[in-house]
Design a protein that fits this description.
- There is one protein chain.
- The protein is of the alpha+beta class.
- Helix content is 42%, strand content 23%.
- The chain has seven helices and eight strands, in the order αααββααββββββαα.
- The protein has helices at 5-28, 36-43, 47-59, 75-84, 94-105, 188-197, 199-210; strands spanning 63-65, 71-73, 109-115, 118-125, 140-143, 153-158, 163-173, 178-185.
- A six-stranded antiparallel barrel has the order 3-4-5-6-7-8.
- α1 runs antiparallel to α2 (36-43), α2 crosses α3 and α5 runs antiparallel to α7.
- The radius of gyration is 18 Å and the shape is globular.
Length: 214
């Protein structure tokens, strides 16, 4: 192996390790948790490897294991995730907020950071039944520059180039981007109805009050 090859191979190995770590935490960021099997399939990891790496994350107190066996982020995990984006004060409210919004709207709900046109979901709660919508791989979307219907609904493209309708509400603004509370609508008409209903804006208002932003 030449000296020129070594740095490139080390970089590739590092990139894969970071991507794997990100996939593991992405599964744990569901408000109700995810099973190790679900995470291993999504991260394309052997189940034994996922179990072993989650054991390490538990020892570091970044994740918890529920009595059901599902993996969730710990309080420390939430603080690390939101603090990395400059929104550390949001972490105590994240799981409860997205779970409440999902129950009330019956739609997949999330908290994410929007920078330019790129949305990175951090915490989410997935809908069930006929209204089920899974979050994009890695929780990443490219969002249109202007809202549909002149409101809070935006067309967004996920990592698989699938188009979704996202309803977004500002929570906190920073120089580099904004924290958004959102839901994934089933269609454009569903988005219009949800937006006009006011549930999302009311939940966003409550979160801003809790954060003393209003």
């Amino acid at each position: 192996m030449s000296d020129r090859q070594l740095p490139h191979q080390i970089q590739n190995s590092y990139d894969r390790a970071v991507a794997r770590f990100s996939d593991l935490l992405d599964g744990a960021s569901a408000a109700k948790g995810s099973s190790v099997n679900q995470v291993s399939i999504r991260a394309k990891l052997p189940r034994s490897t996922a179990y072993r790496q989650f054991e390490t994350l538990e020892q570091l107190r970044i994740t918890n294991r529920a009595p059901s066996g599902d993996i969730t982020l710990s309080d420390l995990g939430w603080r690390i995730g939101f603090s990395a984006w400059g929104f550390g004060d949001v972490s105590p409210f994240a799981a409860a907020t997205v779970r409440y919004l999902r129950i009330q709207s019956r739609r997949t709900s999330f908290l994410g950071v929007l920078t330019d046109r790129k949305l990175q979901a951090i915490a989410y709660s997935a809908s069930r039944g006929l209204s089920f919508r899974s979050l994009s791989a890695g929780g990443q979307y490219v969002v249109s520059t202007s809202g549909v219907f002149g409101g809070n609904t935006f067309e967004a493209q996920d990592r698989d180039s699938k188009m979704e309708f996202l309803i977004l509400q500002d929570i906190v603004e920073r120089e580099f981007g904004s924290l958004r509370l959102g839901v994934i609508a089933l269609s454009s008409s569903d988005a219009r109805e949800l937006d006009e209903h006011g549930l999302l804006s009311d939940t966003a208002h409550r979160l801003r009050v809790a954060l003393r932003q209003e």
